[in-house]
Amino acid sequence: MCNYRVSPNGKVALAYASKLNWSVFPLHTPKGKLCSCYNPNCKSTGKHPRTKNGLKSASTNLDVINGWWKKWPDANIAIATGQQSGFVVLDIDPRHGGEDSLNLLINQYGPLPETIQAITGEGGRHILFKNPGYVRNRTNILPGLDVRGEGGYIVVAPSLHACGKRYEWELSSRPLSVALYYMPDWLLQMIVDPVVEKPAKKPDDYWIKIIQGVGEGRTEHVRCFPFRVLAKAWDSGSYSL
């Protein structure tokens, strides 16, 4: 890496790109009770992009990164997730039961591999896994558990959170200290192929359709529909000789 003269945050951003090949881009920064965007109604203080193209700006080009942090020395650092940086993230929010949800999964399926982990400014966790292929962003796979994949990003150390605390890498699971591992198959299956239970049809639905049919003038539909209802009831054993 060239000897760029840049701020401490800029040096870390350059290291992410040069040593880990992670695509970075600058975020706004908390300024007291405000965001550096100075929008009094900002709902994402210190977490949204400074660049015009946002996530699409993410880069490993050291000259580009150096230019960003010369322009915004205290900018928070974001890393694009998914194929661009080679990892996906399990985002654990304890405020919404994330640790409890994860413990339930671990108790049922077994422990997670000892991969890279980070502590968020609010005390949550980011667990990084080697990218297994195309994994999209998903929210609330269980209470307090989100996934950051294609089209997503995470805020990373030493970025400042609105609460005044900094993001940091978990001491025993820092980049360059431990390797990235793939997530276990059971977790990948849960993320890429969620089970959606379809609610059973209520018998009342049939009668609602009849009423709707009358209202819309579908006389032929209404004339035939009761016989279909009776046939279904007979087949299901609701009526018998």
Automatic annotation (TrEMBL):
The cross-references to CDD domains, in alphabetical order and at most eight, read: Prim_Pol
| Organism in which the protein naturally occurs | Peribacillus cavernae
Whether Cell inner membrane counts among this entry's keywords is no
Q: Which UniProt keywords apply?
A: Hydrolase
Q: Which SUPFAM superfamilies does its entry note?
A: Prim-pol domain
Q: What domain of life is recorded for the organism? A: Bacteria
Protein name from the UniProt record: Bifunctional DNA primase/polymerase
User: One GO molecular function term?
Assistant: hydrolase activity
Every copy of the DNA primase/polymerase bifunctional N-terminal domain together lies at 13-187
Question: Is Hydrolase included in the keywords of this UniProt record?
Answer: yes
